[in-house]
Each structure stands twice: as structure tokens, then as C-alpha cells.
## 1
Amino acid sequence: MPSIVERKSPSDMRQVGISGLRAAFNLLNKWDCTAEQAQAILRLPKATYYKYRNDPDCARLDKDQLTRISYLLNIHQALRIVFENPDNVYGFMSKRNHNPYFHGRTPLEAIETGDFGALYETFKRIDTLRGGLW
């Protein structure tokens, strides 16, 4: 049986990506990310970042960018499960973390490198807070 993704048309998948991009922009804004941090996290060149910020409907996202957006939205979902207070939900990414992976960095500092592995590792550790098993 084909997955939901396999049954969607390319046009439908593009709309899903655009919706995800809008949500990611809003989330990164609530995390108080700078434009430079958001560009690195989403792997968007500067001109493209501003073009998509101003007109998300023109976005053409590759698989890596869609996966990055998915990780961001899943991080947010995990934080919403763990915390009831919006200050914690949105502030967690900017709080120093002394767990072994972060070594005193904030989760945002880890993912702002733009390294896909850092985004994955950050997601994995936050997902564990909600009881996700890896």
C-alpha cells in the first residue's frame, strides 16, 4: 500500500512544503532566531531566505530543506508536549543546556551551525524529554 506521501501529487507536496516553511519561519521567529541563524538552520542562501520570507508561495524546497523543516516542527511538538508554559515552549531553545551533547550550549547554538547532524541530534535529545525512544 502506498504511503500518504506517495499518493500526493507534486503540486500537493509543494503546498505541504510551503505550509511547513511558513510554520518554520513563525517558529524560528518565536525562538528569536536571527536571519543568519534561520538561513543556516534551513540551509537557505541569504537572497533566497528573504525572497521566501516575503513570498513563501514561490518557495522551491529540496528534500534536505523539507527534512530540516520537519525536524524543527517535530522539536516544537515535543516541547509543547513537555511544557505547558509558552515561555518554556519557546524559550527552551535559548536556555543553556549542560547535558553531555550540548556541553553548556543552547540547543539553538547547536543547530545554528547548519549541520544536519546537529539538527538531528538536538531533535533526538528533545524528543527523549517527551518519552520518545531512540
## 2
Amino acid sequence: MKHREAADAMMEIVRDPHTRLRAKRGEGGESVGYFCSYVPVELIHAAGFTPVRMLLGPPPGDTAGSFMQPFCCSFARSLLEGLADGTYDYLSAVVMPHTCDTIRNLSDLVETAAPAMRVMRLMVPTVTHTPEAVDFMVEELAALKLGLEEVAGSELSDWDLRKSIGLYNRCRSALAGLREMNLGNHLLYAAYLALQLTAPEEWLGLVSALEAGEEKAGTKRVAVVGGPVPQLEIFDLLEEYGMSVAWDDLCTASRFAPGMVAENGKPLHALAERYLGRRPCPTKLDPANQREDSMIKGVGASGAEGVVFAQQAFCEFHSFDYPGLKKRLDAEGIPSVRLDLEHPFQPTGQMRTRLQALSEMLSEGM
């Protein structure tokens, strides 16, 4: 497969995962959806399913309006709409972690709005940096393993799980290599999203065909910080204003990818340690300000000159997180802007004004 064919296939996975996965189910390939990067994809894959990140459903409509207030994030409202209207009818089950308040309550709404869908809950500890948190997570993963075995109709062995752990470790290594290839914002972040929307074996085959691009001269380097950003149009919008993403802290990109799972020892314990040991998300207790420190370190190491906060509108945890991060950036003399995202995505005049202002500040060396 040539580079262009692989890139086009990657884009198609992101543009319309539903048609592909529905066709695969017709051929006997089953999928399980998951709502958050704290859900161990290795466990789903080892049970015989394709792990599918729930990224975006249809625009919120009647079902979302009946069950959720309009000030709930459109990301969650879109997923509820898609589960109720049949968009996700190819899924055998969904795994819903208890992270933010909206997703926590969404698990109950799904059982009412889409009663045919099997819902499996995963309690993720709010405190992630203690041995007790790891022990708790191991117990939760053991319960999830039993649920997946019930849906699959077969037992999930440690050998199966270690095989999936090794496969996803290879994927994470490949993602780290892609950052050095100058693929451009659009294709790089399509690769991140595609890994969350298709089988890892297929994804590795596509990645192996990608070729390094050329660095764009004069591009302003920025970091992007936020939660889930499944809309590739965001990265196109940044390029309109001469910005290239040098580093990110997004749960659909670099917060999803880093950190290998130990391939020896007890696999559930290794999974718990890896998933709890990553950079914390705003739903987790962070008394040592790891998010602030990692952001400043990431921005500095990447050579980013400014920061774009890309946050789902009405996301309480990221909104609570923003003032502290913004204050730290101001103290370091790093300019930043905030974009509030909704689904369907439309670049607003306010977004363009803010990006234009940031672009001008970076051009002036502020």
C-alpha cells in the first residue's frame, strides 16, 4: 500500500467509522464501544472485540432533548442520540466509566433511551496516585473482564490479554514515531483518532505505509490543551492562521497514547498501573499540580510559542481546570486563547477573532 492510499484509508476511518464497522459486524466482526481514555482497550480487544471510542454521533436531536438539558455538553448529547437512533447499532456493548458527572449520569440514560444496548460500568478512582487506587482499579477491571466474557460467550485468558497488551504497545510506539514525521496536523490527528476507531492490526498496516512529510517553513508552533477533540476541522482552522501543533494535552490524542503497559507480571495490575499513571485529566484529583507542570514542560520542550485551549462547551471539569492553567501560562509569559467546541462544529466569528489575535501576538514575538 502506498502513502496516499494509507492516508486516504485513515481519513475514511475517521469520517465514517459506522458504515465500516456495521459491514464488519455483518461479516462476524463484533465491536464494543467505550467512552473515555481511562477504559483499557487491551481488555476489550483480548475478549475478541474491536474497541471503538465513542467520539461523535449525530447532531443532538429529540432524544437528547428529552433526556438532557441543553447546557449539557453536546459531545455527550450527541452520543446519547446516536445510541438511541441506531447509529451505534453495530456495537455489542458499551463500557461507560464514571469520570465526569455527565458521563456518569449518561450510563443510566442509555439504559432508558437505548434499552437493547448492554451497558457495562467502570468505576475509575478519583485519586489515581496511590497503591490503594491501583488495587481498586484492578478489582474494577476484573469485573469488566467478567462482563466482556459474558458478552463474548468465552473465557478471556491471561495469554490473550498479554497478546493484546503487546499489540497496543506497538501501536503506541508507532504513534510516538509519527510525531517525528511531519505529517501535518490533519493526518497526524487522524492517525490518533483512527487507532480509537478500528482494529489495531489494521491500523498498524496503514501506519507502516505512511511516509515523512516536509516541515512547513514559518509556521507558528502552538500547543493544544483540552478534552476530546474528534473534529479534525479544528486542526485545519489552526493552519488557516499559520499555526502548527507542536504538542498537545488532549484525551483523544497525547493523553490517550503515552505510557507502555508492562508485559510481564499480572496483566490486570499492569493495566491499572498504566492507565492511572498517565498525565491526570481534570476529572482526577491533582494535589501536586501535575497538569500545570506537565503543560509547562510540554510547551517548553516542544518549542510551542502559544497555547490553544480546545474545550467542549459546558464541560464543567475543563472549565474549572482552565483558570489555573491560564494563570500559570500568563506567569510564564506564554499567550493563549480558548475555543469552546460544540457539535456539529462550525467555526464562529469569535473563534476566528481569537485565533487571529493569537497569530498576531506570535508574529510580534509576545
## 3
Amino acid sequence: MFFDIGAGEFIGLAILGLILLGPDRLPKFASEAASIVRKIAKISQSATKELRENLGPGFEDLQPSDLHPKTFLKKQLAQALGEDDVKQANGAKIDPDLL
């Protein structure tokens, strides 16, 4: 599910919200929370779009997860060495502090 929350956890959160907020304020709170999540998603999408536009050609398929240093390094190694060499190198032990 969303944010790695399972069905049991979701039900537990709903019951906790019902107890803390009460049945009269819970629907309003849920709609406001959903609105905030939508606004954050729009901001994230617009920031990613703006970043793609500012970086120029060659970055059309840029994902926010690609900006993580380890992911970026693996992607660059895959392009430079070829996929088969990187798969063989993945079995080697590398100190994570060096990455």
C-alpha cells in the first residue's frame, strides 16, 4: 500500500484517529490530509519537471531516485562498462563508505 503501510496498520491508524479526533472531525481531517498529500505530489512533480528542463537534453528520463549517489554511480558504471561487467562486479564486496 501507500508508504509501505499494510491493511492491519491502516485499520489501526483509522481506529486511533477515530478515538483521538472523534467521529465528527475525522472526515474533515482525512480530506485535509488528502489535500495536503495531493499538493505535495504536485510540488514534487513540478520540481522534477523543472529540474529536467534546466538540465537540458539527455535527462528526459531522469527520476528523483537517480539522484541518489549510489544509484548514480551504478548507472554510470553500467553505461561505461556494460551491463554484464557490472553484474559481475555486484558480487564483489565494496566498502560502502567509499561510495
## 4
Amino acid sequence: MAKLRRVCAVLLAALVLFAVLTSFLATLGEADHDCTGEDCPICAAVAVCWKVLERLAKLLIITLIFAASVLAALCVAPAFCRLLRKVTPVSLNVKLLN
């Protein structure tokens, strides 16, 4: 099961890398084409490539923000729990002998 998950993750990463590279190369290759006007198919393809790159960049930003917030929560939670713990004679192992 773990091997299948690893293979799926590698395939997904390869697919995202392929999408980024093809979009970038298509945009770079058709940057200075002879535009035919308003309904230019090359301009439409370049616009789609830019939209793919923008969406992947937004996805990367959202993923980084989520990972940072999870990491911050995992680091802050133990300190916060220690702060909330009450100090009592029992927790200090104090013997109350009169």
C-alpha cells in the first residue's frame, strides 16, 4: 500500500512538472508570432498556457500556507498546553503533612 502511494505521488509530481514545462515552452516558443487578429488561435493557446501556470502558482502558494500553518500549530500546541496546565501541590509532588 505504501509503495502504491509513493508511485502515485511520483506520477502526480511528474504530471505537474510536465504541465508546467509544456506551458512554459509553448508560451516561450510562440511569444513573437504573427498575430492574425482577434480570433488568433496561437494567442488563445498562449492564454491557456498562462492560465495553467497561474493556477499552479496559486496552488503552490495555498499548499505552502497550509503546510506552514500546520507546522506552526504542531510547534505551538505543546507550549500552549504547558501554559494551560495548572500548578497544584499534587503536580509538584508536595507532601501535605501537618
